[in-house]
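Hello Y.,

Per our agreement to keep a running log of every chain we model this quarter, I'm adding this entry. I've kept the format consistent with earlier entries: sequence first, then predicted structure.
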Amino acid sequence: MAVRTQLPWSVRLPLVLLVLGVVAAGLMLVYHAARDAGSDGGGDLAGELQQTREQLQRVTSERDRLAAQAVQAENQFKVERAMQQQVVTQLRSLEEDNAKLKGDLAFFESLLPAAGGTQRGVVIRSFKLQPDVDEGHMRYRLLVQQSGRPDRDFVGAVALRVTLQKDGQTSMIELPDPQTAEGAPVALSFRHYQRVEGSFPVPSGATVRSVQVTITAGGEARAQQTFAM
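Predicted structure for the entry above:
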């Protein structure tokens, strides 16, 4: 059998109120401590967030600046490369023009009368021989001129005799070849000058040693010259 002793309400009520006051005070202390801690942590976090934002802004600005510089440098490089290509093209064109002018100068100099003006009639001014675009062929270029001050056209023909050497043996080629259908002489008809071009086959392994050029008119030789190769 248990015996319980009950305190009168006049005594228990102040004790209850005291306990409740202590608990309330404890809760208030915990609340303020938590609020202060939350306030301090939130302030630090906000500061770090602001610093991060500022740093990101600086990095972004620096990136944009470098990107703009890269674009500018690339554009400048493209412009300089285009200018360089243009200069190379112009230089090549000038070199071609220079070579052409030299050729024209040599050509017109060849049209001048011979020294002393003693040479008259038809003369062979130049002859060139080089490999043709067709393999096994040689191409020739010939310039024929009437010296002095001609008062009438020259009408005639040109013929070539090519000396070949192969394996120590010498052979001849007549141009035009009288034994072929294309054996008609190359016609000449000019007042001051005429250029003549043509090609002929060369046997495999043969070498051209010389070319004799003959200018005829009325069945007679008017000029003849041999060019060693």
